[in-house]
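[audit] Reproducing an earlier prediction to check determinism. Same input, same settings, fresh worker. If the tokens differ from the archived copy the diff job will pick it up downstream; this log only records the rerun itself.
[audit] input (1513 residues):
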Amino acid sequence: MYSEWSSLQDEIQCDKTNQSVLHKFPAAVGTTVATSVVKHIATSLSIAANNLEPCRLDSDKEVKWAMEVLCYGLSLPLAELDTIKECVNVYCNWLLACMPPSPHPESVPKPLREDPDPYIQDMIHHLLNLFVPRPGSDVDSVRKQAVFCHRVLRQIQLIAKESTMLSRESWETLLKFLLAANDSLLSPPLEKDDSGLSSYDIGDQLCERVLSVLFEIWLLACHKCFPSPSLWKTFRAMCISWRHHESLVVQWHKVNHALTCRVLSFTQGPDYPKLTLTDEDSQLIPPSMTYDCIAQCWFRFLHIVQNPVDLCRPETIGKTHKFMQAAMNSNTLVDPTQHECLLKLPFIFYKAMKGVSVMVNAFLGIPQTQTRYDDQLISTNSNKLSVPSTPPGQRKTSRPMSVFSSSNKGSSKSSNTSANMPKSSTPMLSSLIFYEPRQSLAPTRPRCDSILHLFGAWLFDAALARVRFHNCHRTVPEQGSIHSDRRSSSVTDSRRNSVSLDYHQDVGCDNTYEMGRAEALGTLCRIFCAHKTGETILPVYYSRFYLAMYYGLQTSEDYMSGQVLASVLFNSCDILRVDLDGVQMLLPHILDAIQLVLNDLPNKYKSSETSSAIEFKNVDLQRSCINLLLSTLCLPLHFKDLTIRDIVSSTDTDVQLITFISLKKKILDLILGALKTTADSTNTQMLLGGLMLLVEDLAVCDLAEQTTFQPHDVSLEVDNSVFSDNSQTSLKTSSSESSFKEGPYHRLGNSAHDIDSAYGLFGESVALICHRLMSQWKGDLNSALAAMEILAGLAKLVISPPNLMMCKCTVKWICEFIVQQCNRPAPAHSKDLHSTIVAAFRCLMLWLVEHSRLLYDKECLHVVLEVVELGISGSKSQKPEIQSVQLKETKIAPSVQNRASDPPRYKQDKQRQPASKRVQEAAEGLLTCIIQHVGAFPPPCGPESLFSLLDEKSLLKYTKGNSSLPEHGSPFRYFVLENSIVIGLLEQPLGNIEDPLPTVTALIRGPFGRHAWVMQLRHSPRIKRGSSKSHLADPGRPVPMENVGTHHTVRPRNYPESVDKVTQTKADKSIPTLESLVTDENRPELNKLKSFMEKQAQFEDQISQTKQEEMQSMTFPNQDTECKPPKITEEFQAARLFLSHYGFLSLDALKEQSNGSLPPSLVTLDTTNPGLSNDLEVLDTITARDNDTVHVFYVKSGQRLAQDILRNVESNHCIQTQFLEFLHSLGWPVDIQKHAGWTGHISTSWKISQPEDIQNNAPRTGTGGSIYDGQQQVLYWADVSSEVAFVVPSLDTFNRLQNDGDKSPHISLNVNGDRLRGTKPTTLTMERPLGEPRSKPGDSPGSPHDASTFRTRRFGRASTITIGPDTKIFVVWLENFEDHENFPTGDLLPLTNTGVEQYTTASSTSMRQEKDIFLIFIHALQNGLFRIHMEGNTGRISMAIPLVDGMVVSRRTLGSMVRQTAINIGRRKRLESESYQPPHVRRKIKIQEIVDKYHLKMTESEFYTALFQDVHK
């Protein structure tokens, strides 16, 4: 830089201008003269100042003679402190001559006032005598000398700042004076005599002050009179002799940081992240300094100390003239590099690298504050920081594990070190390694090459400082090569020398300077991790960086440095996900380092007394390792048999060819081992997300390759015992940990030996997660939720062959977890605890639906139903004998618990005391799912809807003679059962029913959906041939037979024959006969009566004979006497029959409940009220599943405007090919008009499509995803508990939003009542004002224009139903990863309206709160993998998994992982929300509202009377 200029160092050091003529005389003479004259001058000065008398020194000759005396007086020994003080007072007063008019100008000699410049220069030369050390002085005298020096420095500072008459010669004299003063004080090494008194203690006291004045005045000179190149070269050369002082590095970086802050402000713009300085440092740079001057100063000051890496080379620092002179004058010191003051070099080297690191961070745009480094960089008391007691170069090799221990003892003392030197301990890891939470970099930051051009040579040299190289990396230096001048004076030479290596042939692994080396290598990691998309870096920088990383990642005892390794792991989290060329060659070494931190160290100190301290101190280090590990998970299966190039090839190193697939087992062991040992919640969730990625990637890969692996030792067990009723793996209800340890997890030890396969890894992962969940994570909300999310994801994986035994055990373990949580003592019950139980019930539901065969196992079914019972009622009907451990834990008296011998308690005998209402609702949901969906999902109508797609309007189309709803009333009769089920009964048979049987069509609306049933009262089952009509027709008379058999004429008797043989008694004769009572008078009448009787008998016989003759003459059969069947009835009161046959129709059901607030068990609704159909329609819009909406965007490189982003998806030529593949992996396309599920907006969701309403519009082709903008199609995915719509907003969506003039994402609720209409829409939506047009401002721009009018009606009070938070989830595909900093979330937010904002708790705000917006950024790497970046403010519940910020996922799993994460984000936000109600609860509340509004209150007699009346035909 200054090669063509000469240095002034010799001129300054040999300058005699500070010598007086009195120095030619003996000391006694000079002292006498100086004492007398100075005293008189000082007295005259005081008198002149007080009496306003002019100074008597009138001529130039007089003034110069007096200055000669004053010059000598400043050089007197410290015994003459009074004379020295008076000399200082006189000169400080005379120096004011170059200032603006002073209050007492008469005290200054006249020649000085008239032309001060030459006198000022002479006085500055003379003042140098004050800064010369006085050997042998006492401590008090040295301190007073320091006080005088401080005063002179303050006066010089004042002159430099305020004087306007200093010439260039005066400025140069001033700068030379400061250089000479610093050189006089700082060049000699500090030495102490036997008494501990330093001969040069004045330098130790003034070091920081004199350096700060030098740097400050030099900056002022740059502003007022820029120094010449010779002065700059002199400054740079003289700093070499001062580098053993810590204050030099501190002041150097103070100025560098202040200049860097100003340089960035005008080179990068005012919005660039600034380095916040202290108030004192921010005033170092004059505000009016020009940009060119600042740039010149910044670059020159940056190189003012030459190569800071020399600070780790005592042999270089100790080769100065003063050190050599001290060694020659010393009786004990032979080698100047062994000087005691050089023991501070390791810490000075660290501070130098720390300062460089701060500047690099400023260029990268990492927000930082200078005060963060005060304790490490600007420490004024370095004694507080321990330094190694062993001289550099002789320190023993560090133990590899010592850096991670809680305390490390100092190295053993050298024989050359004093025995009295106190021992010191190595500082803690957390106080040495710079680590900040991962912060975003400035998008407009300089290129990596630019930063490396500035600092690369220093950082590369420092990163390999005193490293013991392998033979292949050792280069013998030629004469006059690198060591002659490690840092050239030009940037070009610096870049050329940056590829050279230090050569330490005989030095072992010296970790004395590992602090600075760690900081340098960490800074390099941050630079390379700041690599932008598509940016190029010089190959020479790549090679040097990878070499430094190789030695920094060493874990062997001979080469390891704990501080360096920790720094690398802290600062290289992104190194494998920024597309660095050839970075994969570091993968084996990175995995070795991660294994040391995650597995080896925790196991090593597991039983140590200090294990807890170590664990807490290493949480951040473990997190960094996990971050790094998450970027390696997909590499083995992605590159497979590709060979990793070895960075080392030497005779002393075993070289083996390593392929990516060979590292798969190691990565699996790493993540499983880390899960077993980590205790931090955040680290646990990150590991669980990585484990999910591993299992799914392996399962999908195995399935694609049609792998048919089956463990040899579990095949028989799976076939024979997985569904056996005699299984010995019965679930215990004890909540103690011992029950789990005795469970099937420990008996399945041989079931998953080979974790290289998806089968084995699935079993190992599930068992490990369940074990940790029940033993460690049950008290941590976030860890438990993460475990449930991963278990739910694992349930959906397709493993071939299926691990059925592990599936059964998993269901049991989840049940046992629920039992443990419910049985915890009352003080432990909280919202967080109940949230984990609710999540466990949901996870159990998914496992049962995905593996429905498990419920064919009697034991498994019993365990599940017991847990459901526990969740609903709070207790089980029968419990086994409880262990004492559990009794002690739950603090429940033994008498309260059931014994195994006790009979079960039935439902009606138990009092409901569930853990909470939320737990009860979750258990009810699981029970309903078991009954309705397990083994039957997806339903016949597809996964789009769990409801029946039939409603009243659809059914009436198929009734005989009816095609629409009547204008008044409804043919349906509505009843409500148990205040929770609405039954609509239609007594008219449907058109396809020809049998004249009692038929009723029932629409059953309950908390869990809408179902349509048609029931008939049949005489025979349907499986028999023939219709029911054939059984109701007359079968006809049988054909008469010729042989009628033998006809017996038997006269019937009224009494048996034995009666005649019984002898009569007197009692029998008590009734006289008729003959005995007849007299002569009445005998004629008796005879007449007998004749009448005979005639009547004869007449009857005649009639009978005549009739028989007529009948014999008639044909057979007789139509008049033949039996005929009655006429078939075609009209029934089917509703009454249905209610009666199902037991709903009873007097008890019609009575009011004892609690007056509840209606009777059976309630009739008023069908004449027109609002009933509208409210039923609203009830249908409350789906039985949670729904989420994910909006997907594509951002090309550099785009910031919403219109440009939306325009990308218009054509498939504007996007990457992987984007469309990713979209189709999220879900399947559905047509909005025909879709029965969630579409992303309530106006088009959950509708019953009628053929006449469907418009056959040709789908758009050749789009880049815009077809899924919600106009024609969306991407849809659903399971039994969730449904998700993936919407890709397009430019058409944005244009319609602009045309509508809607800037708010909320829907207006103010609608006049006279706009209500009586017709019922076909689109089923959430409750909304009737008659509101689709194009009204407030509607979503993502819903179609031609959609039918969106109507609903409200009566009475407003609905209290809320659906919880409206969480916005954005998935953003980035071509350039840096664009995530400029993504216009606010501009795109109005496009993401779903219509549910009016039901959320944040509906009063004009825009969505930031905490409710989550962004998942996806960036395609050059190696074919995808980098994930996640943003979103999390509350008490952290970010959902399986995706983790920084994870690198494969193409196979990208869509599934994004979908699972989006669903889990919605679930976590709903768990956290105070206002969220599950869908079945919202439906139940709505049913209760319907009962309150439309209940027909009738007596029992009125109810039965109305029941028997004819219904509307």
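[audit] rerun output stored. Observation attached for the diff report: Residues 925 and 1480 are 8 Å apart (CA to CA).
[audit] end
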